[in-house]
Specification:
By secondary structure, the protein is of the alpha/beta class. It has 9 helices and 13 strands.
Length: 276
């Protein structure tokens, strides 16, 4: 029996917690919304209201981390909006990185020895070619840069072992890019391969890491399924009776394929390609 705390019970954290509880693991889950506490409790999760910001951490963080063996951090930066602020001296502050830095002392004071940090393949940027865990990251977005800095802060701390899980584009039954692409025209990167990961595989991979004690590792979590954007989203639009997006095939496309072979080779994990 492994005691687990999940910081961030949202789109992934909530179903992940349910799965871990089904397997006999006591789970503490955090939310920033009081209205969601009852949802967590009804799911069998020990609920905590935890607010983590660049200035402070709510007092409940100590009890949230207490007696747990593993902490899963699933609070990625917002994909939109400003993740930096400028102080009175004109210096740019990185809000998400500061949140992680504020969390570190509380992890150190707890008995936690293992951390799983949910990151993103956005840390690699948009270069062409085959991307593996050996590829030197080159983030081009602010969220990618802050994720990479946060990864390093956690990995370099000797008080606990950290595994980094870099997810590709997230999809699931209630989340799919084709819904926002439907009906749009003149879209770029028609021939770019997709690099996706389904919610079911996200959960399965995290389970495998925990069950096999694969710590101090970095994994790219991307399914071995890379049709072009035009092929994939046209087909998905048809399946969901949506207006197909139209791509501009005359413009050159980024040819970036993120490899998930390390997950297959080390964790012996089989991706559920029928979900894609």
């Amino acid at each position: 029996m492994t005691k687990i705390s999940i910081l961030g019970c949202g789109w992934l954290g909530l179903p992940l917690a349910k799965r871990l509880i089904e397997k006999g693991n006591p789970v503490k889950g955090s939310t920033t919304s009081e209205n969601k506490l009852s949802i967590l409790e009804n799911a069998g999760i020990n609920p905590f209201l935890v607010t983590l910001d660049s200035e402070s951490v709510s007092e409940s963080i100590t009890a949230f981390l207490s007696e747990s063996d593993i902490l899963i951090i699933d609070i990625p930066p917002k994909l939109r909006g400003n993740n930096t602020v400028t102080d009175n001296y004109g210096s740019s502050r990185k809000i998400f990185v500061e949140k992680i830095e504020n969390l570190i002392p509380f992890i150190e004071k707890s008995n936690l020895k293992k951390v799983l940090f949910v990151s993103s393949t956005s840390v690699y940027g948009d270069g062409n070619g085959n991307i593996t865990e050996e590829t030197i990251p080159n983030p081009e977005t602010e969220s990618g840069r802050q994720l990479l800095l946060s990864e390093a802060i956690l990995q370099n701390n000797q008080n606990f072992a950290t595994t980094i899980l870099r997810f590709g584009g997230l999809i699931g039954e209630d989340r799919h890019p084709v819904t926002s692409l439907s009906g749009k025209e003149n879209l770029d990167n028609a021939d770019a391969p997709v690099n996706l990961i389904h919610q079911n595989d996200c959960i399965g991979i995290i389970e495998a890491i925990i069950n096999q004690s694969q710590w101090n590792e970095v994994f790219n979590a991307v399914a071995p399924f890379h049709p072009t954007r035009e092929q994939y989203y046209t087909q998905k639009a048809k399946e969901q009776n949506l207006v197909s997006p139209k791509f501009n095939s005359e413009k050159s496309s980024i040819k970036k394929i993120v490899s998930g072979k390390k997950i297959e080779n080390i964790l012996h994990y089989k991706f559920r390609l029928e979900d894609y």
